[in-house]
Design brief:
Strand content: 15-25%
Oligomer: single chain
Number of strands: 14
Distance between the termini: 36 Å
Length: about 375
């Protein structure tokens, strides 16, 4: 991507179709880590500036994601009935929320008085109905996120955040689903028709299901992309089953570029490691996000970053950013069996360059390694 420019950020997001957001910030937020691994000199403020200028917008695509604002029409439909049902169950709350926002501008759930009579379940978590309604209005496209302050989200009317021509554009639901499925192929590459680890989450069931009448089923969506030639089947030596590549990326198979001898640190949510099975078969790299693994049973740690060197995943490490001390703490590091970091040609220099870049990214001046 173009180095040291916000244009590089937009190029990555457009290439992927979307960029998954996650609020966990112990080693850097996920979307920042994804961009740091791809855009030279990346600074988190670049994405925040694009978000503030409305060039990026939040939508749902395999979780909360940043999408280019001009692509928002392909992400406005949701298969979930829950948001619409909730708005039907609490029309008075929805009306009150919209009236306040229309009059006062962007507001968060904390700006509304908590009504103890309206505390309900939101995907397994007790929450105030106002918070649910704000989220439902956001999911259904009535509201949009004006800004974030830490984990607090401020909502405003969509028409005050998005250009009128973007809001006016209507894309049939099935076309939106096809676009989103294609975005998963763009971001990850070499997916199968039934890739796991929630790669195709949010696209409905594999087969037609009366619960989602707008979706013909993921298999039918996938077959339509194959039939029109948007994705092409390939076989990989040593990997089971058929995989698919984007038609426009076929030249990369016919004349593959030499991988740069550089080191990059990957987020646990990086598209490259979405499908853990393929990562294991293709790279021989066993990677599990161990957040939900009991501490005593963890092999590594709960927020561990894979280390990419050239075209190999050679290890992993567990960093923490201590912003008060301007220091990166490395809790532990592990190298893959058979990889010797002291003997691998070019690795020491590449690692030093990557560590220096990570310190700048973290706003740190020192790094502390484990003994």
């Amino acid at each position: 991507a173009p180095p040291r420019s916000a244009g590089g950020v937009l190029e990555v997001v457009r290439r992927f179709g979307s960029l998954q957001y996650d609020p966990i910030d112990v080693a850097g937020r996920s979307h920042d880590l994804v961009l740091h691994a791809r855009v030279a000199g990346y600074e988190p403020g670049w994405t925040e500036d694009l978000y503030a200028r409305r060039e990026l917008f939040e939508a749902y695509n395999k979780g909360i994601s940043f999408v280019p604002t001009e692509d928002l029409p392909w992400f406005r439909h949701t298969l979930s009935r829950r948001p619409r049902r909730l708005l039907q169950e609490h029309p008075d709350v929805a009306a009150r929320v919209l009236e306040r926002i229309r009059a006062d501008g962007p507001l968060s759930a904390a700006d509304f008085e908590v009504d103890r009579r309206t505390v309900s379940d939101w995907f397994g978590t007790p929450t105030n109905t106002v918070r649910e309604v704000l989220e439902a209005l956001n999911v259904t496209g009535v509201l949009g996120l004006a800004r974030r302050e830490g984990s607090r989200r401020y909502y405003d009317l969509a028409e005050r955040l998005v250009p009128a021509e973007v809001l006016a554009r209507e894309i049939p639901p099935v076309e939106q689903l096809r676009h989103r499925m294609l975005s998963r192929h763009r971001a990850h590459g070499l997916l199968s028709a039934s890739s796991g680890n929630d790669v195709y989450s949010g696209l409905g069931a594999a087969r037609p299901d009366e619960r989602w009448p707008e979706s013909p089923g993921r298999r039918a969506l996938h077959e339509s992309l194959v039939e029109e030639g948007a994705i092409l089947p390939v076989r990989i030596e040593g990997v089971k089953g058929t995989r698919f590549v984007l038609a426009e990326e076929l030249p990369l198979l016919e004349s593959p570029p030499e991988p740069a001898p550089a080191v990059a640190f990957l987020s646990p949510f990086d598209p490259l490691v979405w499908e853990r099975k393929l990562v294991g078969e293709l790279f021989g790299f066993d990677y599990v996000w161990e957040l939900f693994v009991p501490p005593a049973k963890r092999r590594w740690g709960w927020y561990v970053l894979p280390v990419l060197f050239g075209d190999r995943l050679v290890g992993r490490f567990e960093p923490r950013i201590d912003r008060e001390r301007a220091t990166v703490l490395v809790l532990n590091a592990w190298w893959e069996p058979g990889f010797d970091p002291q003997r691998a040609d070019g690795f020491a220099d590449a690692l030093q360059e990557a560590v220096d870049a990570y310190l700048r990214f973290a706003g740190a001046t020192a790094i502390e390694w484990p003994s």
